[in-house]
Amino acid sequence: MKSALPAYKAQLATLVDEAPTGDAWLHELKYDGYRIGCAIERGKVRLESRRGNDWTAQFPEVVAAAERLPVERALLDGEVAVVTDSGQTSFQALQNAFSGSAREGLTYFVFDLLHLDGKNLAAAPLVERKRELERLLRRVKAPTLKYSAHIEGDGPEVFARACKLGAEGIVSKRRDQPYRPGRNSAWLKIKCVQRQEFVVGGFTDPEGSRQGIGALLIGYYDRKKQLIFAGKVGTGRGFTAKFTSELRAELNKLEQRESPFTPVPPKSAVQRAHWVRPERVVEVAFAEWTQGGNVRHGSVLGLRSDKRAHEVRRERPRGPRGSLR
After folding, report:
1. Which CATH architecture has domain 194-311?
2. DSSP character for 102?
């Protein structure tokens, strides 16, 4: 009996500090964009975020390309990103595309196939799913849809090469495992630079010629559901005049008297702060965590409208992985 098209529930990668070794792993580039599931049913395409939100209207280019696939029903998994002239994916370029800038280079990198015309592929090993996916995408010429190729080889060597090329990092996946929604050890992510999402809990006024915002006061939630202060960030590729002006207008509507952080940050660190309801999420790249628990040399990359504030945690990589051969 043919199975029905399942709901999209994303498998997530666990952050580790070293790439795994051994023949059991396949390695893919980590794309700098939005995780998106693509459900196709009798010519109708629906795009969903990993949280189940409908993103169909945001990416009409992907919808048009997916409609051309020679399938009746299918469920794909991948990442929507913008490829720059340098050949790298850029989260900032994707943010700019949402703001009305050119959408050239917008690409859906497809790395998994979970269902195809009544056949549930999620239970099959990853290497078989990718084989079916590559065969499917080869049947139609659609530049917006790109098969996410993998590399077989020593994980640390693949990771070093990816970082040298300027990539965000790699995702290493067990080739023999089925697709399992949620975060688990069958998929591992290793980052070339430290970066993660943070919740905006406040901001400072701009100084000099800057407009909108001086710096963002950021944090993350702990296990007790308390918002922990992680420092302030006032630079970065995403910290443009347009971005800070538009974000200031948003944050003004969320302003409140009391600090949302527990404990309240020291006054020396947040002089003349404006506190806001912790609803907005930003992506931040940084050099390291300080002993005091703040990010060092933080750089704002942009807003994460696909992430929920109350789910943001401090990412802590696991220790070295053993070899699997």
Report:
1. Beta Barrel (2.40)
2. -
Which residues contact residue 291 at a Cβ distance below 8 angstroms, ignoring those fewer than 6 apart? Answer: none
E strands in the chain: 11-15, 25-29, 34-41, 44-49, 73-82, 106-116, 119-120, 145-147, 169-174, 182-191, 194-204, 215-221, 227-233, 255-256, 273-276, 281-286, 288-289, 295-296, 299-303
Distance CA 162, CA 317 (A): 19
User: Cα(290)–Cα(154) distance, rounded to whole angstroms?
Assistant: 32
Q: Token pair of 71, please?
A: 């399938």
Which pLDDT does position 1 carry in this prediction? 52
CATH fold of 11-191: D-amino Acid Aminotransferase; Chain A, domain 1 (3.30.470)
Domain coordinates of the chain in residue numbers? 11-191, 194-311
Q: What integer pLDDT is reported at residue 322 of this predicted model?
A: 43
Residue 251's SS3 state is helix
Radius of gyration of the chain from its Cα atoms, rounded to whole angstroms: 21
pTM for the predicted model, two decimal places: 0.81
CA distance 197 to 220: 8
User: What residues of the chain score a pLDDT lower than 50?
Assistant: 320-325
Which residue matches tokens 């530049």? 143
Relative to beta strand 145-147, strand 106-116 is: parallel
Kindly state the tokens that stand for 54.
Answer: 């409908």
Active-site annotation holds for 173? no
Catalytic residue among 30, 130, 189, 232: 30
CA distance 202 to 199: 9
Q: How far is CA 284 from CA 70, 77, 150, 288, in A?
A: 40, 25, 27, 11
Rounded CA separation 286/293 (Å): 13
- Between the alpha carbon of residue 309 and those of residues 25, 113, 190, 219, 227, the distances in Å are 33, 29, 23, 10, 10
